[in-house]
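Hi Prof. W.,

I finally got the Phage tail protein prediction working! I wasn't sure whether to trim anything, so I left the full sequence exactly as given:
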Amino acid sequence: MNLEIRTANHLQQIIDHVETQPKLVNKAVRRAMRKTARWLKTRMARELASQMGVAQKGLKNRFILSTVGKGKNQKYSFWLGTYPLAAEEAGKARNLKKKGVAVKKYRFAGAFYKNVYGSKKHVWIRTTRNRAAGYSSVSPVSQTPANVPSHLKGRFPVERIGIEIDPIAAELFRRYQSRVNVQFNRILEQELHYALNIE
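And this is what came out:
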């Protein structure tokens, strides 16, 4: 998902008024963009985590701000990765007595929290069981490892369970599309005042 902040029109009006100090204006614009990006990242991470019922920590590395173009044509692009969130990143995972895993408000029947590959524990489900359950998966289906005893080979392949982000994130992006430009303009006015009158 992608959200763009366009600065060209508002920036041109301001530059026309303060043509004598373009360096200060550009500095104020950069500061305003950084502050707007932090504002957007904080608000969206908070709302997304709240609506999904997960910890914000697992979502923070999914937000990326990048710049495209230069000068009047510069755009800032805010990107959110909507690939499913690994279940164990949503909060503390625990195995249930009645065959399944609980993570925050989510319950995954037939799943297990265990170290299958590597050194970390993850929430897994057998591929055949997931066909009926229909949980999102984070990683592609794993193959049977070569060092598994023959009596356990029927227990593979397994899939790592994930939690969908896309439907909630799409709604958040629609809601913040108009709010982000209003917020940018408000912060830009503050930064221009600071740059032109105080610095």
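The two ends are 38 Å apart (CA to CA). Does that look reasonable to you?

Thanks,
D.
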